[in-house]
Amino acid sequence: MRRTPARASAPTAVERVRSILAAAHSMTVVSDGRHAEVRRLDASGAMGHFHLHAPFEGTGAPAGARVPVRLELTDIAPTPVRDRLRARVTLTGLLAEPYDPDSTGSTCMEFGQGVLEDGSGRSYVTLHELEATEVDPLATSEAGMLTHLVDEHAELVPLLLRLVRPLPDGGVLRALPAGVDRYGLTLRLEYRRTHRDVRLPFKTPVRHIDHVGPQIHALLSEARRLSHTGRLLT
User: Fold this and answer.
1) Residues 118 and 146 in one domain
2) Domain assignment of residue 7, yes or no
3) Dist CA 94 CA 104 (whole Å)
4) Structural domain for 84, as ranges
């Protein structure tokens, strides 16, 4: 009997890298012994500034100089949670000439390796995986959505604790949304000396930003139902 594939409840490493590259407002470029802070990233993110392509596979040596380059990006939670650094992304590769930090055009980069580092460890991604992965539809709007939730609807956030399984004990000092993606909401529970993240998955992955509102309302409706009935799911 054929098994139904398990539904994803969180983004993969390559999905996270793809979204971080799209949503980044700044990055550090290390090349030719120099560090350059690039802060003029537009709506296209890091990949609007760098064009990635496959390594040289022709015969003989490629024409021109080969300058190693490293792109460093950080993923910071948009809400005032404890320990806001969510992940680091590093892309390495080669340039045909030394990097020009004043260039207004896209810089061509021969892709070498992509690395995601977060609380669960280190993951490696390939150029093929990046090219085959769509940007999360919420990636560039995540910060606005979460800050709106915290600033305008702060009273709703503690309600979401009713959805956490197993139910948290009474030691939680504060709960705040630390992230949202197409698969669900990440809630950070802060204790006296530590914190932990829990996932509240959507019923179905979001395919368009207009669809996230109903999914969040569905979570809140379920949390209200549990609060009104006093029912605790195990």
Assistant:
1) no
2) no
3) 19
4) 13-132
22 found inside a domain: yes
Q: Is residue 1 part of a domain?
A: no
Element containing residue 59 per DSSP (H, E): none
Write out pLDDT tens, residues 143-199. 999 999 999 999 999 999 999 998 888 899 999 999 999 999 999 999 999 999 999
Q: Which residues contact 47 (CB under 8 A, 6 or more apart)?
A: 21, 22
Following DSSP, what letter does each residue of 135-202 receive, concatenated? PPTTTTTHHHHHHHHHHH-GGGTGGGGGG-SSPP-TT--EEEEEEEETTEEEEEEE-SS-EEEEEEE-
Q: Rounded to an integer, what distance in angstroms lies between the CA atom of residue 173 and that of residue 169?
A: 10
Give dist(CA 99, CA 107) in Å, integer.
8
CB 71 within 8 A of CB 28: yes
147 and 117 inside one domain: no
Sheet holding 184-190, edge to edge: 174-181, 184-190, 195-201
The count of structural domains within the chain is 2
The pTM is what? 0.88
Alpha-carbon span 183 to 162, nearest angstrom: 19
Q: Which residue has the tokens 């460093």?
A: 72
Domain's final residue, options 84, 99, 132: 132
Decide: helix, strand or coil at residue 117.
Answer: strand
Amino acid identity, position 111: F
CATH code at 169? 3.20.180.10
